[in-house]
Amino acid sequence: MENISMSVEETVKKFFKTISDTIFNLSNKKEEYLKLIPPWCISTDILIIYYVESKKYSIYTNSYRKKDEVSLQIINNKKEFIDKLDFINSWLKESRDKCATSMLIPNQYPSNNTLDIGISGMVFTATSPKVDMIIVNDEHSDTLSEKDFDVKFSEENAKQMALYEWNCAFLGKSIFDIKNFDLYVKGIIDRLEQMVNLKAFKERKIHRYIYCNSDLILPPHKKCYFEKSLQDVHGEYRTSDFILERECGMPPILIELERPGMKLCTKKKDFTCDANHAKHQIAEWVDYINTNSANLSNGFEFLSGKKDRLVIGGRGLEYYNEMKNSKNDDTIMWTYDMLIREAKIRLNAEAERQNKIVGKNKPPIFKIKEITS
Predict the structure, then answer these.
(1) Residue 295, domain extent
(2) Reported pTM
(3) Beta-strand (E) ranges in 41-198?
(4) How far apart are CA 138 and CA 310, in angstroms?
(5) How far apart are CA 241 and CA 226, in angstroms?
(6) What is d(CA 128, CA 139) in angstroms, rounded to the nearest whole number?
(7) What's the number of domains the chain is made of?
(8) pLDDT in tens, 194-241
């Protein structure tokens, strides 16, 4: 009996440790997303109660206690249960915002003589045919058979749990929105490709779509500001399309989005008048910022100093080398197809990184054609 109890204790302890270890591995060089990770993924105090007479387990989790340990209580009969109620209820009270399960009372002593494992503070839900997820919900308790317990508290499931919670934080979505990371991001990029290739989609609709999915579509950044007003010293205003705040030490990016139907390059491979006009618009933004210190206040101090500039307009990759070489100029020029291509490369790399950490061998999300000169 004691060996069974210790086995459950070690399984639960290993499960939560695997989640926290996997989260920390996934967060390498992306630690800013850790603040969005649920507390129970990082630190969880666990109470396991084994009822000898009924062969039942109750497992309670609490992310808000100051300890991070697993405590096993073996209860032989109802008298011992009543004697330990004060200790158990005291443990349950040490929570924040009423997150602990309701207090226990004497008549809750289990009597069925079947081997069950009750999980309090968690609910198991299938988010895909192959994955059993645990969502912390302190108002819910569930009962599992020993077999189900071994499956749901497996090391593989712990890694999958960590991966899903990480991607929720990384993408800023609820876990129910992203049952499959690969399918989720593929859907976002596929829809953008459809939008830029259909004349029915107006430029501003594309702008809003990109803003709503900026973490996946635009170059890497900490924050994305959409339609930020800039004022010159004479009170004139200009509205920037996008401003990206990047990591400390990296210059911000000012982005002008033009319509997908514009021509970016001439047949002689020079930039068109429309492309040069877009460059001029960003130059105006930079001038407003540099000449009026009011644009550098209220959280926009990062705009002082060097600023990268990016124009996105038109379609196609036939002038890929010209766009690539534009990095040597004051303004980088991309078509929407190049923006999408760069996003696909970046998302393939992120998926590959995640799969290595959790021990998965999966094909890339996107197939990317090689560009020939």
Answers:
(1) 182-347
(2) 0.77
(3) 45-51, 56-62, 70-75, 116-128, 131-145
(4) 47
(5) 6
(6) 24
(7) 2
(8) 999 887 657 788 999 999 999 999 999 989 999 999 998 888 899 999
